[in-house]
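Structure (tokenized):
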């Protein structure tokens, strides 16, 4: 199995014991096995396994809060969402709604308070092919985490950045999950075949989708 491209991210105002370790995979072939480990409560697999096809933010703004990224040059400063941060803070203050901090991260992506539904929609399933892995642990655990992921995940590790996530997102599925209206198809075409215009339209669509999801999640925060 290929070695994990694990990235370790320290966050301001959070203890070193709650450092983020993140890895991203595509062409996953053993999702069924990984899913089963979660179902059986195997403590060796205490990770947030997120289906990367529904991680839709071009700037990862649904993962990090502003001014809290202290290490990772590939991540641009995001907007005002803070769902992983919220899950960590809830764990520190002993107010988790789910089993542990990693299940809470998956749960935090959902628009409602149905924990089981959030796992089905945003977590790993037997058919998942793109996987985002998040582990909250001391920074000193990076080597051990990387070795474990490399030994149990059968997939192609890729760099955790905006470009990789954008290539995996299923826009139609995200719109369905968040009950969003169809996005407009405007935009200017460029070149003789409109290739440049199509690429620009795709980026614009992802940006518009991000704004709409942020609004939906803000509504959840205001009503829950």
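Design, position by position:
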């Amino acid at each position: 199995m290929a070695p994990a491209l694990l990235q370790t991210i320290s966050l301001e105002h959070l203890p070193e014991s709650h450092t983020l370790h993140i890895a991203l995979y595509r062409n996953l072939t053993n999702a069924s096995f990984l899913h089963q480990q979660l179902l059986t409560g195997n403590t060796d697999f205490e990770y947030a396994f997120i289906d990367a096809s529904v991680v839709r933010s071009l700037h990862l703004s649904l993962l990090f809060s502003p001014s809290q990224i202290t290490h990772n040059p590939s991540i641009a400063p995001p907007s005002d969402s803070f769902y992983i941060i919220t899950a960590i803070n809830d764990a520190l203050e002993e107010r988790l709604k789910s089993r542990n901090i990693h299940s809470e991260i998956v749960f935090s992506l959902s628009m409602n308070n149905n924990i089981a539904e959030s796992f089905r929609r945003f977590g790993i399933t037997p058919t998942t092919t793109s996987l985002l892995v998040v582990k909250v642990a001391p920074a000193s655990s990076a080597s051990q985490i990387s070795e474990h992921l490399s030994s149990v995940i059968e997939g192609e590790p890729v760099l955790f950045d905006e470009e990789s996530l954008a290539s995996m997102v299923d826009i139609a599925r995200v719109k369905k999950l968040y009950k969003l209206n169809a996005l407009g198809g405007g935009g200017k075409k460029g070149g003789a075949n409109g290739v440049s215009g199509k690429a620009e339209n795709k980026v614009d669509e992802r940006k518009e989708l991000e704004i709409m999801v942020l609004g939906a999640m803000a509504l959840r925060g205001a009503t829950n």
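Reviewer-requested clarification: Confidence is low (pLDDT under 50) at residues 58-62, 64-82, 183-192. The first helix runs from residue 31 to 39.
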